[in-house]
């Protein structure tokens, strides 16, 4: 019988974490939910939520006098703090890249407008085509004119 998987089952082994499916890289989505296996408990939440939770747990442990447990919580808090910084830097880089693309797009658009305007000005400055009577004679007309000239010369002789 084939084993069915429901939507909560994750294939590929046990345990949660940020590295599955991301080649060990940090997901750059601020809303990504992590499953954190802390020193003595498991917490789910975004990087911001986990940072704040571990920071609070570290303060509580410090207040109760458990320095070792407090240090473990603070190290977890520092991990999520670094993840938040990486996400923020990636978001800033993406925003700068979008702004640069937008500037390039606007600049190219303006250059196309300028080129179109110059072409329209050049078109306005070119004289209209000459009337048919002033245009270069066609081959047939040339032959007729040549024949007429020859006829005139014959008449003169």
TrEMBL record:
Pfam families named in the record: DUF4167 (PF13763)
Compositionally biased spans, kind Basic residues: 1-11
Ranges for region Disordered: 1-39, 90-157
Regions of compositional bias (Basic and acidic residues) in chain numbering: 97-119
Domain spans labelled DUF4167: 20-89
InterPro entries, per database record: DUF4167
Signal peptide span: none
Protein name in UniProt: DUF4167 domain-containing protein
């Amino acid at each position: 019988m084939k084993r069915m998987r429901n939507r909560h089952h994750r294939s590929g082994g046990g345990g949660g974490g940020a590295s599955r499916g991301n080649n060990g890289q940090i997901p750059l989505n601020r809303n990504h939910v992590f499953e954190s296996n802390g020193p003595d408990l498991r917490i789910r939440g975004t990087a911001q939520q986990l940072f704040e939770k571990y920071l609070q747990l570290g303060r509580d442990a410090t207040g109760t006098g458990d320095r070792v447990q407090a240090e473990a919580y603070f190290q977890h808090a520092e991990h999520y703090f670094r993840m938040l910084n990486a996400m923020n830097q990636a978001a800033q880089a993406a925003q700068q890249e979008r702004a640069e693309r937008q500037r390039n797009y606007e600049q190219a658009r303006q250059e196309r407008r300028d080129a179109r305007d110059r072409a329209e000005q050049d078109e306005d400055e070119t004289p209209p085509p000459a009337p048919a009577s002033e245009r270069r004679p066609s081959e047939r007309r040339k032959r007729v004119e040549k024949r007429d000239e020859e006829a005139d010369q014959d008449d003169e002789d």
